[in-house]
Specification:
Blueprint: H1 5-16, H2 24-41, E1 53-55, E2 58-60, H3 62-68, H4 90-103, H5 108-116, H6 121-125, E3 132-133, H7 136-147
Antiparallel strand pairs: 1-2, 1-3
Length: 148
């Protein structure tokens, strides 16, 4: 069952805010990267129940962005207000910890640059128009190419 985007962001905040500098940009990109790897790892199952959109500054989950924009460039140290009472499964928690072990040491600018490279799902979607949904098929294919 897919989670709310804020549930995934809150997992990273609760577990890693004392060891990592979590800006809104970094959280948005971590959730997106997690989403992509989840599609690839779990045969197109979705981690998040919201589709990412191609915005000017990269792939974004709009609900998550709306919760984080008040922080600006400040660090997020407390969980985001979330009406959902979802609990992340043990398997999914292990998956998110693996994502953190690879990407958590990077800052938001680096993670953003990863999602903007030529050939990424964002780069293939954004030129067609602002705020378009990035198709899961493009995201899955991209992350599949990364493991080849």
């Amino acid at each position: 069952m897919p989670y709310n985007s804020t549930t995934i962001a809150n997992y990273f905040i609760k577990k890693y805010s004392t060891v990592g500098e979590l800006t809104p940009l970094k959280l948005i990109k971590l959730v997106y990267i997690s989403y992509g790897w989840y599609l690839e790892t779990f045969n197109s199952e979705r981690l998040v129940n919201e589709s990412p959109q191609a915005w000017k500054f990269g792939p974004v989950f709009p609900i998550l962005y709306n919760h984080l924009k008040k922080y600006g460039k400040k660090f997020v140290k407390e969980p985001i207000e979330n009406i959902s009472t979802e609990v992340i499964s043990e398997e999914d928690a292990k998956f998110l910890d693996k994502i953190w072990s690879i990407y958590g040491v990077k800052d938001g600018i680096y993670l953003s640059a990863l999602t903007h490279k030529e050939g990424t799902p964002w780069s293939e979607t954004y030129p067609k128009g602002d705020n378009l949904i990035i198709p899961d098929s493009l995201i899955k294919a991209h992350y599949n190419r990364l493991i080849e």
